[in-house]
Amino acid sequence: GAVVSQHPSWVICKSGTSVKIECRSLDFQATTMFWYRQFPKQSLMLMATSNEGSKATYEQGVEKDKFLINHASLTLSTLTVTSAHPEDSSFYICSARGLAGNLREQFFGPGTRLTVL
Amino acid sequence: AQRVTQPEKLLSVFKGAPVELKCNYSYSGSPELFWYVQYSRQRLQLLLRHISRESIKGFTADLNKGETSFHLKKPFAQEEDSAMYYCALSAISNFGNEKLTFGTGTRLTIIP
Fold it and tell me: Residues 60 to 89 of B: which have CB under 8 A from any A CB?
């Protein structure tokens, strides 16, 4: 099956700093990538959807100036948490979807655990 | 707005016994429903989708539009079925994007 990687797998940062998380589709071209957030013992909540070469669309309640998403190529999307605060601590998961056939489903990355001190 | 409900957070079943994980949804359009599974220390992966009408690892799920349900079933549980299971609904967002809405998940534990 198609593989999606995320880097880093975990990160600890100080309050006020920015953190970048990368999401890569390793063996297919991802026309659409999704970013989710998961709090402990809760479900995945979609934050934003990004299509390659265009601006991301954010879900209601998600601050686009705080969570910057870039989808510059068909294999890479980045999420930057700007001026992170402890309440941003969470598990961030990306998924990627290709164009046709079996690639139409979403393939999930392993997630990135962010801890803001 | 769409919503997915999984009423059981935890479910324990003896090995060899039948399993049923409940999922109910609300959506004004024509739903496309999925079950995802997350085994310990692994990423989320697709288990099955309703349009395929297939059985994966012995699991099946039937979409019941009258009851707005998409329960996941397996006649004989196996220890390797222990995992977190999420029901999800695919819908078109206000922006015209296809998006998945997940339920809160059910942790299934198979008792040897």
Answer: 86
Separation CA B38–CA A5 (nearest Å): 16
Per-residue pLDDT of chain A (117 residues; tens, 9 = 90+): 689 999 999 999 999 999 999 999 998 888 899 999 998 878 899 999 998 888 899 998 999 999 999 988 889 999 999 999 999 999 999 999 887 655 568 899 999 999 999
| Tokens describing residue A104 | 């139409």
On the 0-12 / 13-18 / 19+ scale of CB atoms within 10 A, B11 is middle
Interface-testing mutation among B43, B45, B86, with chain A (most A C-beta atoms within 10 A): B43
Count of H-run helices and E-run strands, chain B:
0, 11
Inter-chain touch B95–A49, beta carbons under 8 Å: yes
On the question of a cis peptide bond just before residue A110, with omega within 30 degrees of 0, the verdict is no
